[in-house]
Write a structure and sequence with these properties.
20 strands, nine-stranded mixed sheet, 6 helices, Barwin-like endoglucanases, six-stranded mixed β-barrel
Length: about 260
C-alpha cells in the first residue's frame, strides 16, 4: 500500500501530474492530497477498475520494457578527444552498451565546475560531432551547475563545464544536460507497442514502489534496442536497476483500454 501525500504530488509538478492519476485499490490519499487533485481537476483511476485496465492477456498491462540505468557520462567530439588525450588519439572500447555500436570507453576525465570536481567520469563512444555531458540533478548540486532536463542533442542555453584529461583541458561553453527519461525502440518494437517516434509514454514501476513516469519520450530507429533509459536519481527514487521491467500504461496522456488502445 502506498500513502500519497500532497508533497508527493507537488514534486511531480515539474514534469506534470498525470490525468487521470492511476493508483492501486489499496493505495490511500491524505486529505491534503485529495484536495490538491480535486482543485486541479485531476481524475483518479484505480487499476483493475472498469475505467482503467483489465488483466486480459491482450491488454497493454502485459507490455513491459526493460530498464537501463545510466550513470554520469560524456560524449566527446573527435577534436575534444585529441585535446584531452593527444593528437590522433582513439577511444578504447571497454564494454559494449545496450544500443548497437555504442560502448563504454576505458578512458575517463575529470569534470570541474564552479563548486567542485568529479573524477573518473566515463566517456562513451564512438566520438560524435559535438561534446555533451550528461549528469544527474544531484551531480549538478555537487558541481555547482544546474543543467536543464533535455533530450540528447538539445544543447541550446545549457551550462558549460571544464573537462580535464591527461594531455590537456577542454572548456565547454555549453553542453551539460540532465537527460530526459526516454525509451529506445526499433521499428519493429514501435509497431508492436503501437507507438511512433516522439510519442510520450506512461510507464509504471513493478515492485515495492509502484511509481509512474507520466512523460517518457519515445525514440525510434532501426539500430535501437528496446530500453527505458533513466539516470541514477530516477533509478534510486523508483528502486530500479538495469534489467528490471516497467509496465506500459498509456501514451500521449491517455490510458490504454483493456484492448491495449487509447
Amino acid at each position: 500500500m502506498a500513502v500519497i501525500t500532497e508533497t508527493t504530488l507537488r514534486a511531480m509538478l515539474r514534469t506534470g501530474v498525470p490525468n487521470p492519476f492511476v493508483v492501486h485499490a489499496e493505495d490511500r490519499f491524505t486529505p491534503a492530497a485529495t484536495d490538491f487533485l480535486k482543485g486541479r481537476g485531476i481524475r483518479v483511476e484505480v487499476l483493475g477498475s472498469a475505467n482503467a485496465f483489465s488483466g486480459g492477456s491482450e491488454g497493454a498491462l502485459e507490455q513491459t520494457i526493460p530498464v537501463g540505468v545510466s550513470n554520469r557520462h560524456i560524449h566527446l567530439a573527435t577534436e575534444d578527444v585529441e585535446r584531452l588525450f593527444g593528437a590522433g588519439y582513439k577511444l578504447t572500447p571497454l564494454r559494449a552498451l545496450s544500443q548497437t555500436g555504442q560502448f563504454a570507453a576505458t578512458e575517463t576525465v575529470t569534470l570541474l565546475g564552479p563548486k567542485g570536481l568529479m573524477k573518473d567520469v566515463r566517456i562513451l563512444g564512438p566520438a560524435r560531432g559535438v561534446s555533451q555531458v550528461e549528469i544527474s540533478r544531484t551531480d549538478g548540486f555537487s558541481l555547482g551547475i544546474h543543467p536543464p532536463v533535455r533530450m540528447s542533442g538539445s544543447l541550446e542555453a545549457t551550462p558549460g563545464i571544464t573537462l580535464i584529461g591527461p594531455a590537456g583541458c577542454v572548456v565547454l561553453e555549453s553542453g551539460v544536460i540532465v537527460a530526459k527519461c526516454h525509451v529506445h525502440m526499433s521499428d519493429l518494437d514501435a509497431r508492436a507497442f503501437h507507438v511512433q517516434d516522439g510519442d510520450s509514454l506512461m510507464l509504471q514501476m513493478l515492485g515495492e514502489r509502484t511509481l509512474i513516469f507520466p512523460n517518457v519520450t519515445v525514440r525510434v530507429s532501426p539500430r535501437y534496442t528496446l530500453d527505458f533509459h533513466i539516470d541514477l536519481d530516477e533509478a534510486n527514487a523508483a528502486s530500479l536497476k538495469t534489467g528490471d521491467k516497467v509496465r506500459l500504461l498509456g501514451k500521449n496522456g491517455k490510458l490504454f483500454s483493456s484492448a491495449g488502445r487509447c
